[in-house]
Amino acid sequence: MIALLLLNYALADVEVTYSIPQHHIAGQPLYVDLQLLNTSETAEAIPDLGRNRWLVSFETNGPSGKQRLRSSKPSNAQEQTLTLRPRQVQEYRFEVPNAQAWSTNTYSVSIQTPLSTAPFQTSVTVHPFQQQGLDTNALRDSLFISPTEMVWQSTADDQQHLFVGLEEPRYFTSTPLHSHFGSSIHLGSEHHLYWVQKQNLHIQKIANRRLGNSLQISIPWPDFEPIGTPFTDDQGRFLFPIWVPKGDSDTGTLHVIYVTNAGQSTFRKVYTGKKPTQTLHAINQANTPLIVAQTNKEAWLFALTEVGDPKIDALPPNSVAILKTRPTETLRDISFGISETHGLHLITLRQKTVDNKSQYRRQSISLQGTKIETAKEWFSNADLHDIWLVEQNLYIGGVQDKRPLLTNQNNDILWLHPVQLPDHQHTVWQVTNQQIGYWSKENELWSYALVERPQPIKTTP
């Protein structure tokens, strides 16, 4: 919640903005941000709330009753002032006392400062720390997005309440049920959060943990679906890939919606043909967004390059054929990897059946479609379907006897889930430079299991 109070303190015109989230996660600290603006034409002295935090008091009311709290005033403390120049802004952040101990419920919060006679009042609803929805696309593109930037939902009161960050979640917004949501991959300090309801795309830029203004874009196709993870490019634009089907067939067109900071949108056709089984997204060192479209037999790379001419830049980009499998093979997975020797490149995992056994092979391919390295084929009793290169270490994920497992390029089992999982339980791996784990969904709830990082397994990229 953001509220403005126009106050008058000691003949100074001071505009005070209170910002506090309306929704919160149990067990996490809760903060309120104050912004003070001197709207007068002269410099004015006001209490310095940063050095005199005991001047701010909080009153909360919840299941345990009312509590009135403030910082203790130091002995012999003198009230200090701050001089605000005309149009100068001063910001403060305060932690709401005892909010980490709140249970799931709704609490009223009252904040009193010496800048006003009336307190600022609001309410906060506390949700359990349970992911009922998760941006699984971002898990696939973890080279370009941090777990602190991933979006998830808590559902209550017939709404999706969206939070940012898997470890220290912050409230983002509330949306209608069944809205598609997520965050963008990026190289710079800025990225975007978004959600889609029907034909409306809602976007908010976030920089240094600060949310910008919300933009709404209308998508002209009544029948479409978001595909893969969107981008934030070096110009601060939001690039949103969508798939527009052709009737009831498995063909259609991949478009990318470009949205500027001013909310102006353009549409670029990228590819027309059979719908990819998945798309993989990255940004190269030249800050060019890359899209890999994959089927179970082929993969193509599209570089969304631009020359500055709107007519040319609206044309479909050139594509690079990354691979075409042998007739007996199936392409199980493809991912981006970064190596000291080859920089950003692709790693593929293919499978074929030989004498009723699954045989796999992996191959590294440059962004120009050139083969870098092909590994020796190997047999496995597991169903392998995920591959990653992290800090020069190769990991392959799959399932064996309904138990998720993690292997290396030598087919050594590094980790095996202790029990079998139900057939209906959905799992998604999350691999970052810091840790490896997997998410599983059962009974509409996602849960995370950390896999202890194995010893580094060196591989030639």
Give your account of this protein's structure.
The relative contact order is 0.08. Helix content is 2%, strand content 56%. The strands form ten sheets. Strands 3-11-10-6-7 form a five-stranded mixed beta sheet, with no helix packed on it. Strands 20, 21, 22, 23 and 24 form a five-stranded antiparallel beta sheet that branches. It has three domains: 2-127, Immunoglobulin-like (Sandwich), CATH 2.60.40; 130-323, Neuraminidase, CATH 2.120.10.10; 325-461, no CATH class. By secondary structure, it is mostly beta strands. It has two helices and 40 strands.
Write a concise synopsis of the structure shown.
With about 450 residues, this protein is mainly beta. The chain has three domains: about 1-125, Immunoglobulin-like (Sandwich); about 130-325, Neuraminidase, CATH 2.120.10; about 325-460, no CATH class.
> How many individual β-strands?
40
Strand ordering within the main sheet: 3-11-10-6-7
Q: What count of helical segments does DSSP give?
A: 2
Largest sheet: 5 strands, mixed
